[in-house]
Amino acid sequence: MKVYGDLLERFFEKVQKTNNCWEWTAATDHEGYGRIWVNGKPQNAHRTAYELFIGPIPKGKCILHHCDNPACVNPRHLFLGTQMENITDKTIKNRQTRGEQVPTAKLTRHQVQQIRKQYRPWSHKFGSQALGRRYGVSDVTILMIINGVTWKEADRND
User: Fold this and answer.
1) Which string of DSSP letters, residue by residue, matches the chain?
2) pTM of the model
3) What is the spatial distance between Cα 98 and Cα 21, in angstroms, rounded to a whole number?
4) pLDDT value, residue 2
5) What residues contact residue 118 under an 8 Å CB cut-off, 6+ apart?
6) What pLDDT, on a 0 to 100 scale, did the predictor assign at position 96?
7) What is the pLDDT of residue 1?
8) Which residues of the chain have pLDDT under 50?
9) At what angle do helices 128-135 and 109-118 cross, to 10 degrees?
Protein backbone atom coordinates (compact mmCIF):
# COMPACT_ATOMS: atom_id res chain seq x y z
CA MET A 1 0.00 0.00 0.00
CA LYS A 2 1.42 3.33 -1.09
CA VAL A 3 -0.24 5.37 1.68
CA TYR A 4 0.98 2.94 4.35
CA GLY A 5 4.51 2.99 2.95
CA ASP A 6 4.58 6.79 2.85
CA LEU A 7 3.32 6.99 6.43
CA LEU A 8 5.84 4.45 7.66
CA GLU A 9 8.65 6.33 5.92
CA ARG A 10 7.51 9.70 7.33
CA PHE A 11 7.12 8.10 10.77
CA PHE A 12 10.69 6.75 10.90
CA GLU A 13 12.13 10.06 9.65
CA LYS A 14 10.95 11.52 12.96
CA VAL A 15 12.16 8.75 15.28
CA GLN A 16 15.48 8.32 17.03
CA LYS A 17 15.85 4.79 18.37
CA THR A 18 17.73 4.32 21.64
CA ASN A 19 18.46 1.10 23.51
CA ASN A 20 15.09 1.50 25.20
CA CYS A 21 12.67 4.13 23.90
CA TRP A 22 12.05 5.32 20.37
CA GLU A 23 12.15 9.09 20.83
CA TRP A 24 9.87 11.27 18.70
CA THR A 25 12.02 14.12 17.34
CA ALA A 26 9.39 16.20 15.49
CA ALA A 27 6.47 18.30 16.71
CA THR A 28 5.03 17.65 20.16
CA ASP A 29 2.06 18.92 22.12
CA HIS A 30 2.25 20.79 25.45
CA GLU A 31 2.59 17.49 27.36
CA GLY A 32 5.45 16.18 25.21
CA TYR A 33 3.45 13.72 23.08
CA GLY A 34 4.58 13.50 19.47
CA ARG A 35 2.27 14.79 16.72
CA ILE A 36 2.04 13.57 13.12
CA TRP A 37 -0.38 14.27 10.28
CA VAL A 38 -2.29 11.18 9.11
CA ASN A 39 -4.85 11.42 6.30
CA GLY A 40 -4.93 15.20 6.61
CA LYS A 41 -5.50 15.23 10.39
CA PRO A 42 -3.09 15.65 13.32
CA GLN A 43 -2.72 12.57 15.49
CA ASN A 44 -0.64 11.54 18.49
CA ALA A 45 2.50 9.76 17.27
CA HIS A 46 2.25 7.01 19.90
CA ARG A 47 -1.27 6.18 18.66
CA THR A 48 0.09 6.06 15.09
CA ALA A 49 2.88 3.74 16.25
CA TYR A 50 0.36 1.45 17.91
CA GLU A 51 -1.76 1.30 14.74
CA LEU A 52 1.27 0.77 12.48
CA PHE A 53 2.88 -2.02 14.48
CA ILE A 54 0.14 -3.60 16.62
CA GLY A 55 -3.22 -2.91 15.02
CA PRO A 56 -6.40 -0.84 15.16
CA ILE A 57 -7.28 0.99 18.36
CA PRO A 58 -10.79 0.10 19.55
CA LYS A 59 -13.15 3.05 19.89
CA GLY A 60 -12.86 4.72 23.28
CA LYS A 61 -9.51 3.16 24.16
CA CYS A 62 -6.35 5.02 25.19
CA ILE A 63 -2.77 4.09 24.42
CA LEU A 64 -0.68 4.03 27.59
CA HIS A 65 3.11 3.91 28.03
CA HIS A 66 4.91 1.31 30.16
CA CYS A 67 7.96 3.62 30.08
CA ASP A 68 6.05 6.80 31.10
CA ASN A 69 7.85 8.74 28.37
CA PRO A 70 5.31 10.75 26.34
CA ALA A 71 7.78 11.14 23.45
CA CYS A 72 8.27 7.36 23.16
CA VAL A 73 6.75 5.61 20.15
CA ASN A 74 8.31 2.17 20.71
CA PRO A 75 5.41 -0.25 20.18
CA ARG A 76 6.81 -2.59 22.86
CA HIS A 77 6.25 0.20 25.39
CA LEU A 78 2.62 0.83 24.40
CA PHE A 79 -0.54 -0.87 25.63
CA LEU A 80 -4.30 -0.41 25.43
CA GLY A 81 -6.31 0.90 28.33
CA THR A 82 -9.43 2.78 29.29
CA GLN A 83 -9.44 6.42 30.36
CA MET A 84 -9.90 5.26 33.97
CA GLU A 85 -6.90 2.90 33.65
CA ASN A 86 -4.87 5.80 32.23
CA ILE A 87 -5.79 8.03 35.20
CA THR A 88 -5.07 5.22 37.67
CA ASP A 89 -1.70 4.54 36.00
CA LYS A 90 -0.77 8.25 36.27
CA THR A 91 -1.83 8.38 39.91
CA ILE A 92 0.00 5.21 40.94
CA LYS A 93 3.18 6.42 39.22
CA ASN A 94 2.83 9.87 40.81
CA ARG A 95 2.57 11.68 37.45
CA GLN A 96 -0.79 13.31 38.22
CA THR A 97 -0.67 17.11 38.27
CA ARG A 98 -1.39 18.42 41.77
CA GLY A 99 -1.62 21.61 43.77
CA GLU A 100 -0.31 24.80 42.20
CA GLN A 101 0.69 22.88 39.06
CA VAL A 102 -2.99 22.46 38.12
CA PRO A 103 -3.67 25.24 35.59
CA THR A 104 -7.00 26.17 37.22
CA ALA A 105 -5.70 26.24 40.81
CA LYS A 106 -6.91 29.32 42.68
CA LEU A 107 -4.77 28.76 45.76
CA THR A 108 -1.09 28.33 46.46
CA ARG A 109 0.42 25.72 48.75
CA HIS A 110 1.23 28.48 51.25
CA GLN A 111 -2.39 29.70 51.26
CA VAL A 112 -3.65 26.15 51.86
CA GLN A 113 -1.29 25.79 54.82
CA GLN A 114 -2.57 29.12 56.19
CA ILE A 115 -6.19 28.01 55.76
CA ARG A 116 -5.48 24.83 57.74
CA LYS A 117 -3.85 26.83 60.55
CA GLN A 118 -6.59 29.48 60.69
CA TYR A 119 -9.70 27.31 60.36
CA ARG A 120 -12.02 27.22 63.36
CA PRO A 121 -15.38 25.48 62.92
CA TRP A 122 -18.41 27.68 63.66
CA SER A 123 -16.25 30.80 63.86
CA HIS A 124 -17.57 33.90 62.09
CA LYS A 125 -14.01 35.05 61.45
CA PHE A 126 -12.25 31.74 60.72
CA GLY A 127 -15.03 29.38 59.63
CA SER A 128 -15.32 27.92 56.15
CA GLN A 129 -17.49 30.73 54.77
CA ALA A 130 -15.25 33.53 56.09
CA LEU A 131 -12.07 31.81 54.87
CA GLY A 132 -13.71 31.13 51.52
CA ARG A 133 -14.51 34.82 51.09
CA ARG A 134 -11.00 35.82 52.18
CA TYR A 135 -9.28 33.46 49.73
CA GLY A 136 -11.79 33.76 46.87
CA VAL A 137 -13.07 30.19 46.92
CA SER A 138 -16.24 28.49 48.12
CA ASP A 139 -16.84 27.28 51.67
CA VAL A 140 -17.04 23.76 50.20
CA THR A 141 -13.50 24.17 48.83
CA ILE A 142 -12.33 25.20 52.32
CA LEU A 143 -14.00 22.16 53.89
CA MET A 144 -12.47 19.84 51.29
CA ILE A 145 -9.03 21.26 52.14
CA ILE A 146 -9.66 20.90 55.89
CA ASN A 147 -10.93 17.33 55.54
CA GLY A 148 -7.97 16.27 53.38
CA VAL A 149 -10.03 15.58 50.27
CA THR A 150 -7.95 18.03 48.24
CA TRP A 151 -4.44 19.45 48.63
CA LYS A 152 -3.17 16.38 50.50
CA GLU A 153 0.36 17.22 49.36
CA ALA A 154 0.34 20.73 50.88
CA ASP A 155 1.68 19.61 54.24
CA ARG A 156 4.53 17.49 52.88
CA ASN A 157 8.04 18.78 53.37
CA ASP A 158 9.60 18.43 49.90
Assistant:
1) -HHHHHHHHHHHHTEEE-SS-EEE-S-B-TTS-BEEEETTEEEEHHHHHHHHHT-PPPTT-EEEESS--TTB--GGGEEEE-HHHHHHHHHHTT-S--GGGSTT--S-HHHHHHHHHH--TT-TTTSHHHHHHHHTS-HHHHHHHHTTSS-GGGG---
2) 0.62
3) 27
4) 36
5) 126, 131
6) 65
7) 26
8) 1-3, 158
9) 150
30-to-17, 33, 68 alpha-carbon distances in Å: 22, 8, 16
Question: CB of 29 within 8 A of CB of 49?
Answer: no
CA–CA gap between residue 142 and residue 106 (Å, rounded):
12
CA gap 137, 112 in Å, rounded: 11
Q: Which residues neighbour 108 within 8 Å (Cβ) at sequence distance 6 or greater? A: 100
pLDDT at 41: 92
Phi–psi pair at 12, nearest 5 degrees: -70, -20
pLDDT at 60: 93
Is the CA virtual torsion 103, 104, 108, 112 positive or negative? Answer: negative
Contact 35, 26 (CB under 8 A): yes
